Amino acid sequence: MNGYTFSNSERRAFVSCERRWNYSFQRGWAPRTISVPMAFGRLWDDSLNVVYEYVKHIQDKGDLANVVRGDLGAVCDMLANEVCDGRGALLGHIPSAPERGVLNEWVQERADELGEAAEKGWTADGPSYTMADVWEQEGIFRSMLRRYLRRYLGDDVGGLRILAVQPTLKASMRTAAGNKSTRFSYAGIPDQVVEDPDSGLIWILEQKSTGMSAVSRESDLRVDPQGLSYCWLLWRAAGVPLERIGGVIYSIGRRKEPSVPKRLKCKKRPKCACVTNADAFGDPGRSCPTCAGTKQDHEGCDSCDGRGLRGVSLAECDTTPEAYIEAMQMAPEWIEDEHNEVVSRLEAKRARWFHRFSVRVHPSEILGLEREIYQTGRLAGEGMRRSTLEAPRNVGACMVAGRTCSYVALCRTGSGFDGTDDMAHAFGFVQRDKNDHHGEPNTWAWRGE
Q1: What is the band of 403 on the pLDDT scale with cuts at 50, 70, 90?
Q2: Closest among 152, 188, 265 to 6, alpha carbons compared
Q3: Which of 124, 139, 159 is the last residue of a domain?
Q4: Which of 22, 249, 264, 358 qualifies as a cystine partner to 391, CB 3.0-4.6 A?
Q5: How many domains are contained in the chain?
Q6: Residue 403 forms beta bridges with which residues?
Q7: Are 290 and 297 spatial neighbours (Cβ–Cβ below 8 Å)?
Q8: What domain range includes position 93?
Q9: Quick check: is 82 in a domain?
């Protein structure tokens, strides 16, 4: 297949701002480093691709019963550990699972990036994070992955048939008359392709992570054109019949560890020996190994069992029901009705942490997208004949969602920047290949499974 290949990212960039599209996809410039949230998003995608390769493997082997009937919680924890730290008994037959673990590889990449920045003296265009940020994200990731698996693994193993994991799909665009374009094609890499055994429909399963409440992402994802373009590729590239395409299932995880519920302090104030026997300690409290300066010793206290703490606070806490119940079980007492009411409120807000919903796609929407992307390709073809400075800017895209455009340093003044590669390197950009896909296109095709 010859000609020029578009992706959803390129299409989005072109319709948003032609100048930015020119910098990124025509000149091939990209910022030298990426932000921690973007790097975390890639880590999340890579890790769940390994998870669903494992699910596909056990489904293909017919080994579902052993997973579903066994201790599912233990399987989830074991799988999370192997994804993070390296292949073991579960992932030993999964080639896509890195030997050292997806998380370990990610941490090493961030460390190498920081080391290169220090060695070459990068300043303003260097990484916007420190190694402390990386370790913080590592802890969040471990907790997040374990909770995701406990929430969804059992249901997905028995409820979804995994057909493909991160396949690269590519098809020729179609003209208004329905003929294959000889100049333009369209490509995309969905996270997973799955089948619902009950309905027989084929769905795209897309994994997302967010720093916000997970459920708050639903409204914008429902109108995101990326999922619809993947459905078009299922039809034109993989050969799935239009009537068999269900749509997109979005699975969103919140990038945050649940807060630890606050424990109430014991109301009793038993004095420590350092206070009652000040002569023996000299300066009461400061050097006392028993109370460490608190001047209280709760050992033998019948009210708190020597812990100095009592029940869990009833105050609002940004945590999960499981974390709150665990804190209750650690406490010496709790007020059953009132604490159970807190758990009920947390249950009602569970979608803040993980949220999954489906967007049904009608065949007419896919046909409409086919016409739309062809017209976008025609406009982009005209844009390819323009120089960087002739590409019009959309000043409304200089700042989106509170963040400035990555290329603002190159075009913010509109003063006639000549677009030389040397100047771009000086601004902290590097040359990258926009067609760096994961493997060869269309190695997976629907065969009526």
Answers
A1: confident
A2: 188
A3: 159
A4: 22
A5: 2
A6: 400
A7: yes
A8: 32-159
A9: yes
